[in-house]
Design goal:
By secondary structure, the protein is of the alpha+beta class. The protein has helices at residues 3-15, 23-31, 46-58, 69-76, 89-99, and strands at residues 19-21, 37-41, 62-67, 83-86. Helix 3 (46-58) links the parallel strand 2 (37-41) and strand 3.
């Protein structure tokens, strides 16, 4: 997995307004079937992790949990983000491809 490139793509997604961040907003997008890929911080709390993973599993959205809160927050230029959801299919597909390299 090329972590640096994935984080760079997250920054591009932020600039293009193709992501939502935060647990509540991410859950809304997952339920609305707009979420294409979810990033969950590896150091997120137990309850947050369970809620996000359960909803993502039910709605068949892939979850990547190999980044810390600090890495995710720095990539999108916001503070203390535990959950970041990509809502653009092309960005999500490219990041999934980079993850599988």
């Amino acid at each position: 997995m090329n972590k640096e490139q994935i984080l760079s793509f997250l920054g591009l997604c932020q600039k293009a307004k193709k992501i939502v961040s935060g647990e509540a907003f991410s859950l809304e997008q997952i339920k609305a079937k707009q979420a294409k890929l979810v990033f969950l911080a590896s150091d997120a709390g137990v309850n947050t992790t369970k809620r996000i993973k359960d909803k993502s599993l039910f709605y068949e959205v892939e979850v990547i949990d190999s980044f810390s809160t600090e890495e995710l927050s720095k990539a999108i230029g916001k503070n203390n983000r535990k959950v970041v959801t990509v809502i653009d299919k092309k960005f999500a597909d490219k990041m999934k491809e980079l993850k599988n390299m």
